[in-house]
User: What shape does this take?
Amino acid sequence: MPEFMNILKKRRSIYTLGKEVSLKDEEIESLIKEVVKHSPTAFNSQTQRVVILFDKAHQKLWDLTETALKPVTPPEAFPNTQAKLQGFSQAKGTVLFFEDTDIVKGLQEQFALYADNFPVWSEQASGLTQSNVWLALSEAGLGANLQHYNPLIDAAVQKEWSLPTTWSLRAQLVFGSIEADAGEKEFMDETDRYQVFH
Ligand SMILES: Cc1cc2nc3c(=O)[nH]c(=O)nc-3n(C[C@H](O)[C@H](O)[C@H](O)COP(=O)(O)O)c2cc1C
Assistant: This one.
C-alpha cells in the first residue's frame, strides 16, 4: 500500500492522551510550522495563524475552557463536561488554529468579484491545514483529537495570550501520547458516495 495511504489510515480521533511523547517540544513545534507553511491557501493568502500550547499553557487553556463552560452548562451535566475537559488537560498540548480576518477582509476589498468566496476559502484552508497537522502528528507517533470550543472561549484565549483581535479561532487540536487506541470506524456504502464517469 502506498505510504500516503498508511499515513491517512493511521490518523484517528484519539481521546485518551498522555504527556509521554518521545518528540521534544522544539521538534513538535518545527513539525507544525513546516506543515502549516506548506499547506495551501487561496491566492497564497496564508491566512492561517497558529498558537502551540505545551504543558502549563495547555493546562491553562482547558482551565479557562472549564470556566467559560460552567455558566452555560446545566448543573447536572457539568460533572461530565468537567471530566471531558480534564481528560483533554491530561494530554501534552493543544494547537489552536486561527484565521486572520484582516487578510480575508483585505482580499474581499482587493478582489470584489470573489468577495463572497474569501471567507469560505479561509475556512477551507483552515480545515485542510488542521488535517495536515493532524496527519503529521499521527505520522510522528502522536495521537490527537479535534475540538471546537470557539466562540465560547475566544475572548479568554485572546486575553490570556495577548493575541490580535483579528485572529478568529477556528479549532483546537489536542495532542499527546496515545494511551488508548481509537475504536473501529464504520464507513458508508460506496455506492451512495461516489459517481464515476468515463
Ligand atoms: C470538521 C470536523 C469537526 C470536528 N469536530 C469535532 C469536535 O468538535 N469534537 C470532537 O470530539 N471531534 C470532532 N471531530 C472528529 C470527528 O468526530 C472524527 O474525525 C470522526 O468521527 C471520524 O473519526 P476519526 O477521526 O477517528 O477518523 C471533527 C472532525 C472534523 C473533520
